[in-house]
Amino acid sequence: MDSSEEILNLLRDNARLSVEDISAMTKKSVEEVNSIIQQLENDGVIMKYAAIINPEKDINTKAKVRAEIEIQVAPEREHGFDGIADRIYRFPQVKSLYLMSGGYDLKVVIEGETLQDVALFVARKLSTLAGVRSTKTHFLLKTYKENDIIYVEKSTDRRQGVIA
Q1: DSSP H helical ranges for the chain
Q2: Cα separation of 108 and 121, whole Å?
Q3: Cα-based angle 62, 66, 69 (whole degrees, multiple of 5)
Q4: Cα distance between residue 139 and residue 152, in whole Å
Q5: Using CA atoms in the order 10, 11, 12, 14, what is the torsion angle rounded to 10 degrees?
Q6: Which single residue of 36, 51, 104, 119 could bond 70 by disulfide (Cβ 3.0 to 4.6 Å)?
Q7: Which of 54, 60, 51, 59 is nearest to 142 (CA)?
Q8: Are 50 and 39 in contact (CB under 8 A)?
Q9: Mean of the per-residue pLDDT values for the chain?
Q10: For position 112, what pLDDT does the model report?
Q11: Which parts of the chain sit beneath pLDDT 70?
Q12: What global pTM score does this model have?
């Protein structure tokens, strides 16, 4: 494993590690670690440092409605799927957008304040875009695991055993 990959793995696990901690863990100088991280940021490998928030416990996120939408589109001449993807990911409601294989072309994850907001976004914004053939909306009801993070707290059986 090269130095960049080693540092990326450490940051994936804990983005709050200091350069000094990474230096000690990798047995590289602080200057070398700083240089590698700076290069990764400049190259666009590291795009952002962020906290992972449990949506079930964050009052602001818990109140929102999330949906996954499967979209079938007609690829554009000379741009393929990129042109329509560009128009879709610019909407502030869009949290994620993926090019897919299989029965549909794009999967978009959106967030709205209410079911009505999501429905209106699909009806008035997404489905009216040139090139969109069909949409299928799935509402997210509960998040159990996302990006290797398990959100469900394990309940323990607090009953005491009975000995006969």
Answers
A1: 3-13, 19-26, 30-42, 59-62, 82-89, 115-121
A2: 12
A3: 170
A4: 19
A5: 90
A6: 104
A7: 54
A8: no
A9: 91
A10: 94
A11: 155-161, 164
A12: 0.77
